[in-house]
Write a structure and sequence with these properties.
The complex is a heterodimer of chains A (175) and B (178). With 175 residues, chain A is an alpha+beta fold. Chain A has 4 helices and 4 strands, in the order αββααββα. In chain A, a hairpin with a 3-residue loop joins strand 1 and strand 2. The radius of gyration of chain B is 42 Å and the shape is rod-shaped. The chains are: A alpha+beta (175), B alpha+beta (178). Strand 1 of chain A pairs antiparallel with strand 3 of chain B, so a sheet runs across the interface.
């Protein structure tokens, strides 16, 4: 027995429109979740790779520091030898200049050159010759220049010239 | 569709739409956005690390190249520092220029990484030119050696041309080769 002329509509607990919206929410949530997971995976991967590279960089830095030290050592050694060569060249030059200073008329019997002084012993035909030809050059180089003459039976003079230079403490230290 | 149903449909849709917008906003703002920021930061961090890595590698390569070049250019100088020069070797050189030469090691000064050896050379010659020739030979054969002061040249007998020469020589070498 029926009480109505129309057949009843099926009534669901959640209407079809609501079902669609719920599906939409779930799909969205799922999509967002997937994106989140993807981002998380990539972020973790990037961070891991960054850490690996940073570890490599630390190694590189330490290697760079070693190389720099090696280079500095190498440069210091080269500089040391160059200084030696320069010192050698300067000394040879100074000795050559010293011999060039001595005029032909004056005979030298001994030369003693140290860091602070130059002692020349020799024979000169006259005091004036020494005074005019050798003394000015020595006085120009050394801070103190003193000469003693001794007359020889031949009328020539034996002379001892003592020339000193003030060595600054810093220079003394270097030597 | 009945009017009531249509109203119900519109209202439900509007409510759901609003909820969806709020949901989307909250999800993006609270959930997705921080993750995107983290991702971007990690990407920037990786890029920086890669830049630093390539810069470091390049720098290392350049320094290595510089060391190689410097070593190559100064091979003789650096090799000389490692050779242990003895008094005999100096005497052999001195014999070519002087008569009655003798070489004695006077003292040794030790520094942090190097050793300075001081030699005294006593010799005879008829002129002063051999001194300069000897110095030049020393310079070419032992680059790490230098003549130093004191220097003495003495003519003992005024009638003879023989000069007694006393030279001092300093040699620097690496401590490990001592």
């Amino acid at each position: 027995m029926t009480f109505s002329f129309i057949s009843p509509n099926k009534k669901t607990f959640i209407s079809s429109i609501m079902q669609s919206w719920i599906a939409c929410f779930i799909a969205s949530f799922f999509l967002v979740g997937m994106i989140w997971l993807l981002l998380d995976w990539q972020t973790t991967r990037f961070l891991k790779r960054s850490q690996e590279i940073q570890t490599q960089n630390t190694g590189n830095q330490s290697y760079q520091s070693d190389l720099q030290q090696k280079l500095l050592l190498l440069q210091s050694r080269i500089k040391k030898v160059q200084e030696i060569q320069q010192q050698n060249a300067s000394l040879i030059n100074a000795i050559q200049n010293l011999f060039e200073l001595i005029p032909e008329q004056i005979t030298i019997n001994s030369i003693s050159l140290t860091n602070e002084s130059l002692v020349i012993k020799g024979i000169t035909p006259s005091r004036e010759l020494y005074t005019f030809l050798l003394d000015p050059s020595l006085k120009a180089i050394f801070s103190q220049s003193r000469v003693d003459f001794f007359v020889l039976p031949s009328g020539w003079y034996n002379f001892i010239s003592v020339n000193t230079i003030e060595v600054k403490p810093s220079l003394e230290k270097q030597q | 569709m009945k009017r009531e149903d249509l109203a119900d449909f519109v209202i439900k849709n509007l409510v759901c739409l609003c909820l969806f917008i709020i949901f989307s906003f909250l999800v993006v703002e609270k959930f997705l956005s921080p993750k995107i920021n983290d991702f971007q930061e990690s990407r920037v961090q990786l890029r920086h690390a890669k830049i630093l890595q390539s810069r470091g590698e390049k720098q290392n390569e350049q320094t290595q190249l510089q060391i190689q070049d410097t070593t190559k250019q100064n091979q003789a100088i650096l090799a000389s520092l490692k050779i242990n020069t003895t008094a005999n070797r100096i005497q052999i050189i001195a014999r070519d220029f002087f008569k009655n030469s003798s070489v004695a090691r006077e003292k040794v000064q030790t520094h942090e990484d190097s050793v300075e050896k001081f030699f005294k050379i006593q010799a005879q010659s008829n002129e002063i030119k051999p001194i300069f020739d000897f110095a030049k030979r020393i310079e070419s054969m032992i680059p790490n050696a230098t003549l130093i002061l004191p220097l003495e040249i003495l003519k003992k007998d005024p009638l003879m041309n023989t000069l007694d020469i006393t030279l001092s020589l300093k040699i620097v070498q690496l401590r490990s080769t001592e």
